[in-house]
Input
Amino acid sequence: GYKSIENFFTGVLGRFRNLSKRDFLCIGKGEPINIKGVNIYAIPDLAVKSGDFYYFYDWKTGYPTEEDKLQLCCYAFYGNFKWGIPFEKIKLCPVYLAKGRVNLRPLSINWCEVKIEEYIRNSIRDMRTYLKGEDLEMNEPKEIEEFKKTEDKKKCEKCFFKEICLNLKRV
Output
C-alpha cells in the first residue's frame, strides 16, 4: 500500500541519482530470450551498471519467500544470456518495499547456473502439459476445465486469472 510507495520514493530512487542514462540496461521492459525455440521472460524490474558491477532489482510488495532467490537467479541468467554479463559481476537486489529494505545478495555462480537451467527445463516441460497436444508451435491451451482450481484462497488474491476462475462453476 501507501508504505510501499513511500519506501520506494524515499529509500530506492535516490540510489540511481548519480547514474547516467547509459548505465540503465532495462527498466521493467525488454525482449525475451529464446532457448531451444522457447521464449523465456525473465526480465528484471530494473538492471543498472554501477562501477564494475551490474545490479538487478526486483520490487517486492510482500515479504521474503524461498522463491525470491530462484526468481532473481532467473534474472541473472537473462543478463548473462542477453548481455553477456559474467555471473560474478551480477548483484541481485530484492527490494522489499513494505519493509523499506534493499538486500544485495552475492550470487553463487554454480548454484545459479545449475538450478536455473534445471528450473527452465522443468518449467517448459510442465507448461507443455497445459497445451493441446503439448504442441509449443501451436501454443494453444487445453480447455479451462482441465486446469485444477486451488483450494488455497490466499493464492487467489494475487492470481492474474481470478476473474476467469471465479466465474466458473466447477469444483
Summary: The beta strands are 24-26, 33-35, 38-40, 46-50, 53-60, 90-96, 101-102, 105-106. Residues 109-128 form the longest helix (20 residues).
